[in-house]
């Protein structure tokens, strides 16, 4: 099936298009830079952070109520849950009531704390995991959960948790700074239709995926000023590994996509993070952190303590490294296009970087909300202030969105980071047929092996439904359809 037919088949899904992306600001690339935004946009200082991965590997049940095999374990102590229908209207005199006809947002209350969920339906597994989050210390004023939420190995993906002075070292994980980047190319679909398969192969040749790294790296990487740091975490071994990992994709749900709009404009989108550096930051933080009494397995730090300050510096560095990693991948994809598409011969990479978006979705940042300075932990959630652009990808084979923030202070100016898993990897491999996968990916250059079924479209929620549940958070600015898909 030709791409034009593919676009025709998916364009009738009722998602508003608002035109062509021109002059996209780099909304997330400078997350480490302090700035003051307007109106109700939170002020972010020079402390953006992050985490990913499991806390103590295999102790996820202590954080979310589920063990490492995905089986439910009843909490040892019964949650103090208020009767259904009750809610919290004020926190320390601040009115936190919110209702929206656009989204189906609902409030859960446990342990005298509020969890605000941007989804009308919550299954029992997710509900118990969200209730357990209310045991975390120092939450203020409440927890927000985005519509792409799902229960992960050691946390609830899609959460936004603000605190006054407490850092949750292992609740957010170790893929610190994992996020999205997107750049537009000065091409049209007609320029690349004839080299679709060649692009797939050339990108694979230039960007290591899975556990592969660049054993040898060139002087351009070795000489980057970014690696000139006095952070203790960046010892000789970690620095060497970070240089080898720069420009690598990783595995799981990380991807590179060449995408097109309905008008035939061409984009490149990347999803990846900080590779082993983030994991090392997390491990160091766990070693220096403190075990919380509840929930068991949670490791915390005071943000103003020496170990807390060190963790914040390390985590900020990992966020910046993740941004550099995505930028390096974009550069390698740019070189692939230059090798195959004559129209790219006179295009400079720097000119493309002047108009690109980069935004993390696993990090901590210092922000102002409801009149207080807070440490906001985002695990699988995007910070998108009013008027700024961000990226919300769909699943493999479906469409992705560039979105514009609406500045909703009740979500702490956050949105979903994607579609969110609907099936575990094991469930996807056993339920999704190979024939179904091939039919969904017809017309798209992609992997054809059966091991990719856990990343198939059916393993994820319907992105159109996710977007519908956050209409009060973001508006759709552009919709992008897959042409080439490279997965880890």
Taking Cα atoms only, what radius of gyration do you get, to the nearest Å?
A: 22 Å
Structural class: alpha+beta
Widest β-sheet, arrangement of strands: 13-8-10-9-20-18-17
Please give the largest β-sheet. Answer: 7 strands, antiparallel
Please explain how this structure is put together:
This protein is an alpha+beta fold. The protein has a domain at 3-44 and 165-422 and 460-487: tRNA-splicing ligase RtcB (Alpha-Beta Complex). Helices cover 26% and strands 24% of the residues. The chain is built from 13 helices and 20 strands. Strand 3 and strand 4 (113-117) form a beta hairpin. The longest helix is centred in the middle third of the chain and has 35 residues, at 306-340. The model is unreliable at 8-79 and 81-85 (pLDDT under 50).
Helix-strand layout with pairing:
Blueprint: H1 3-10, H2 61-64, E1 90-91, E2 94-95, E3 106-110, E4 113-117, H3 124-133, E5 143-151, E6 156-163, E7 166-168, E8 179-188, H4 189-192, H5 196-206, H6 219-222, H7 236-245, E9 255-260, E10 265-272, H8 275-288, E11 290-291, E12 299-302, H9 306-340, H10 349-353, E13 356-360, E14 362-369, E15 372-379, E16 381-383, E17 389-392, E18 400-405, E19 414-416, H11 425-431, H12 434-440, H13 463-468, E20 474-487
Parallel strand pairs: 4-5
Antiparallel strand pairs: 1-2, 3-4, 5-6, 6-15, 7-12, 8-10, 8-13, 9-10, 9-20, 11-12, 14-15, 16-19, 17-18, 18-20
């Amino acid at each position: 099936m030709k791409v034009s037919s593919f676009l025709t088949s998916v364009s009738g899904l009722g998602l508003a298009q608002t035109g062509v992306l021109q002059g996209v600001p780099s909304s997330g690339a400078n997350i480490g830079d302090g700035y003051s935004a307007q109106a109700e946009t939170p002020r972010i200082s020079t402390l953006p952070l992050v985490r990913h991965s499991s806390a103590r590997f295999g102790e996820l049940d202590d954080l979310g109520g589920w063990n490492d095999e995905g089986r439910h374990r009843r909490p040892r102590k019964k949650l103090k849950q208020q009767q259904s229908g009750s809610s919290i209207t004020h926190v320390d005199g601040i009115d936190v009531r919110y209702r929206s006809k656009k989204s189906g947002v609902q409030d859960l209350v446990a342990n005298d704390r509020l969890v605000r969920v941007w989804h009308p339906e919550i299954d029992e597994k997710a509900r118990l995991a969200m209730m357990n989050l209310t045991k975390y210390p120092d939450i203020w004023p409440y927890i927000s959960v985005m519509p792409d939420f799902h229960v992960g190995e050691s946390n609830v993906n899609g959460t936004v948790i603000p605190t006054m002075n407490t850092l949750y070292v292992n609740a957010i994980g170790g893929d610190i700074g994992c996020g999205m980047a997107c750049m537009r190319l000065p091409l049209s679909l007609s320029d690349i239709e004839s080299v679709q398969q060649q692009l797939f192969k050339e990108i694979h040749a230039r960007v290591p995926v899975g556990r592969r790294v660049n054993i040898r790296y060139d002087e351009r990487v070795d000489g980057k000023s970014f690696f000139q740091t006095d952070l203790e975490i960046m010892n000789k071994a970690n620095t060497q590994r970070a240089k080898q990992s720069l420009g690598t994709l990783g595995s799981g749900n990380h991807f590179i996509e060449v995408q097109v709009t309905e008008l035939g404009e061409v984009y490149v989108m990347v999803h990846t993070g900080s590779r082993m550096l983030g994991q090392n930051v997390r491990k160091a933080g766990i070693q220096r952190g403190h075990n919380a009494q509840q929930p068991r397995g949670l490791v915390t730090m005071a943000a103003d303590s020496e170990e807390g300050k060190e963790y914040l510096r390390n985590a900020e560095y990992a966020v910046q490294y993740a941004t550099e990693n995505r930028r390096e991948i974009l550069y390698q994809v740019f070189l692939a296009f230059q090798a195959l598409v004559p129209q790219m011969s006179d295009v400079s990479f720097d000119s493309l970087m002047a108009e690109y978006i980069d935004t993390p979705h696993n990090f901590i940042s210092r922000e102002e909300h409801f009149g207080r300075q807070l440490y906001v932990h985002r695990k699988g959630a995007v910070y998108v202030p009013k008027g700024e652009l961000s990226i919300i990808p769909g699943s493999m084979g479906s469409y992705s969105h560039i979105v514009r923030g609406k500045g909703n202070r009740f979500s702490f100016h956050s949105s979903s980071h994607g579609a969110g898993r609907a099936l575990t990897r094991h469930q996807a491999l056993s339920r999704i047929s190979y024939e179904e996968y091939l039919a969904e990916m017809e017309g798209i250059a992609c992997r054809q092996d059966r091991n990719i079924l856990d990343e198939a479209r059916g393993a994820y929620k319907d992105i159109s439904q996710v977007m519908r549940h956050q209409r009060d958070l973001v508006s759709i600015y552009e919709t992008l359809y897959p042409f080439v898909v490279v997965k880890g």
